[in-house]
Amino acid sequence: MSTKVTFLIRLLFLVVVLNLKLLPIYSQVAINSTGANPDASAGLDVSFSNKGVLIPRVALTQTTSASPITSPVTSLLVYNTATVNDVTPGYYYWYNNRWNRLQTSGYSGAVSGTFATIPNHFSTIAPSFGFVGSYIDLPPGKWIVYAFLLLAPNNGGAVGWDDTGFDRALWGSFTLCESSTTFSFSPDIIGSPLISGGVVAPSRYGMTGGAIHVVNSSSNVKRYYLWGRIGQFNTACVFFNFGAHYWGEDQFFAIPAE
Questions:
Q1: Residues 6+ apart with CB under 8 A from 182
Q2: Which of 199, 195, 194 is nearest to 234 (CA)?
Q3: In which element (H, E) is residue 138 found?
Q4: Looking at residue 164, what is its pLDDT?
């Protein structure tokens, strides 16, 4: 009799264990030193007053390669330990088939452009575009390129009125291309490709300023060339030392967009 009872108890225990293994288990997880339950909104709730969560540390090879992770899922977060190609130590997450760096500062990694050589008198008239002489080198990623450039018509000569009393005016429009010899808007530009500004009578100077959104989706640093054109109304013009940092107001730089 005792043997039968023992056998039945063991059989019942085995059935219970097998059922537990076969049944899916749904739960939230709390990791802490107090025994507190997880927050209702969290699948995983880690709470310590003197400890943090250590993100997995891996050595990435470049932003466009998943290695050393196999088939990363969107939003996967790692801490990169390597300095190679276009990655440096820091947090990266997987999105849009590439590793995207988490910026720790809104202006971290700003890039300065290279200005044209002085003297640089720009005279390309719309609708044609001409290479200004300035350029900027951008690593892979999303960038906001800013250009603030002084317009000095004919070495500071005033824009006045014509003989019929109409105001004379001129303007400049500028963009980024991937060649210094052949004009074509860079396909990396997102949204409006132009930065513009003007000078209206009786002014001697004006400013052009604005931003262009660029996404370098390659795995290499790319050079973007500043091209422009002069639009004119009842006047002819040359921009004196344009884009050459001759003027203290000139600024040409980019900051990461993410």
A1: none
A2: 199
A3: strand 130-138
A4: 41
Whole-number pLDDT of residue 162: 47
Judged on CB neighbours under 10 Å (0-12, 13-18, 19+), 114 is: middle
Give the model's pLDDT for residue 165: 40
| Threshold 0.85, pTM exceeds | no
Please state, in angstroms and rounded to a whole number, the distance separating the CA atoms of residues 108 and 110: 6
Residue with tokens 């004379």: 168
Name the token pair of 257: 């967009």
CA-CA distance, 253 to 164, in Å (whole number)? Answer: 42
Cβ atoms of 240 and 153 within 8 Å: the answer is yes
Q: For the chain, state the CA radius of gyration.
A: 31
| Matching residue, tokens 């001759």 | 246
Nearest alpha-carbon partner for 73 in 97, 40, 44, 91: 97
Contact 252, 115 (CB under 8 A): yes
In the block, tokens 């989706």 appear at 217
Taking 70 as the pLDDT cut, the residues of the chain under it are: 1-27, 103-109, 119, 154-169, 201, 232-237, 240-241, 245, 258
Interatomic CA distance for residues 123 and 239, integer angstroms:
6
Give Cα separations from 91 to 47, 57, 103, 240 (angstroms). 21, 9, 8, 45
